[in-house]
Amino acid sequence: MNVNKKVLSSLLIATMAFSTGFLFQQTTPTQAKTSIKVIWRHKTKQTSYKIDKSKAKKAYAYSAKLGSKKFKLAAYANKTFKVSYQQKIRINGKYRLYYYAKNSSNKKIAGWIWRGYLSKVQKTASSSSNQSNSSATNNNESNNNSNSGVMDNSIALSAPDLNDLITASPDLDPNSKLLTLSAATYAKYPSTFNTQFNLSQFADSGVFVNHQATIYVADSQLVNYVDTAINNWNNALGRQVFVLGTQANHTLTVKFGDGSAQGWDGLFSGNTVEVDTNNFNDPTYGRSGISLSPQLAAKLSSISNQSAQLTADTNAQIKKNRTNYENQYAALQQKLASATTSAAKAAVQRQLAVLKSTYEQTDQSLRDSYNDQIEQLRQAVQYAYQDAATSAGNQQITNYWATVIMHELGHALGLYHTPYQNDVMYAPVSDEPDATPSPVKYSWTSPVDPNDPKAYQTGQLSSRDVDRAKLTGALGYW
User: Fold this and answer.
1) What distance lies between CA 313 and its chain's CA centroid?
2) 221 assigned to some structural domain
3) Domain range holding 110?
4) Cα distance from N-terminal residue to C-terminal residue, the chain
5) What does the pLDDT read at residue 9?
6) Are strands 242-244 and 213-217 parallel, antiparallel or unpaired?
7) According to the model, what pLDDT value does residue 388 have?
8) Is residue 360 part of a domain?
9) The whole model's pTM is what?
10) What tens digit of pLDDT does each residue of 72-86 get?
11) How many structural domains does the chain have?
12) Per-chain mean pLDDT for the chain
């Protein structure tokens, strides 16, 4: 989840840089070492793929953790590979999904391949025909069974009948008919449900035991927010899907992490939920949608004006100091050039050294004073927000971080993102780079419901969130 919503005074978002002066040295950055971390690794249903030659002309398959190259993909562009494992890897702060692929005819030709270089092998017409015939048979059985008035869990709907039900259901929101199908239907069409309702099985095996996950909260500051998130999900689903555990007895961990580099507030990684500690400890974060009181707005405006005036005054003082230095430096250089004795030259050089030292000390003193005063103003902004956060602000912060955790627990239940900002599972775009990849019904770059309240403002699950979670339960994802 990546929700970056800040309401800050111009003090905190204004650029406060000033002239650097010509004495500052230029530094050359060293090349950073590539950072690679495996986030999770899962076994998946075996699927056939072929290498997309147009995308993988210069690409390779790799060993685990991308330690070494195994073979060049273009050399096997027409070969079929079997995939039965996948892993999510973080490379210098960016996430990618890799598949472990084995050549169908030569098992020694195997390695981890970025999924963007692979294309799924489509089923043959004969197998599709067989599936269609099978579906038709099952449909007849289902119709016969429906006449008896008893739902037989061993009989699946036909694909056309299921598609008719999906079409009649609201967008990305399975209706009551789709939530009361036979077990055989859910078992037969998981990929259809996944794509039509943006679902997948994201939780590691063992996270849910008897349809329940036991949560250990590693950081005490998060306990109240986790408790709120748990209660909201349990009440909505009508059962104890999440319960609190201990360090010695748990299947899922909630803890602080560092999302500053990747820009996330919350992250689900198979059996762990992380909450960004930096934004969590920022008292001004997560307040989008709060109407500032006239008193708070006036105070922030005053602080912002002080910041702007301080920056302008400091820049003027630094410029004046630099100009004085340059003028005196030029005069002494002329004096040095006209000196006729060694003693006279030495005296001028001592004056130049004193001039430079005085300039640097004055310059540094001005900068230090500026930094001290600007930090006091930053703290004044925080105090102003804290003073104003006794009512709506406190509730907004509670809603925000409880919603972040509800969102990540939604991933544990098997829910991917939606374009509805009223949903806890909302995301601004359909292909967030840090998100666990999942089938999506369609792509989006803006909310479908821009005029509706945001979930993190209300702190409530939508009916769409709840219905989709009930569907993933029927699919066996939790």
Assistant:
1) 40
2) no
3) 36-120
4) 20
5) 38
6) parallel
7) 67
8) yes
9) 0.53
10) 998 998 889 998 888
11) 2
12) 83
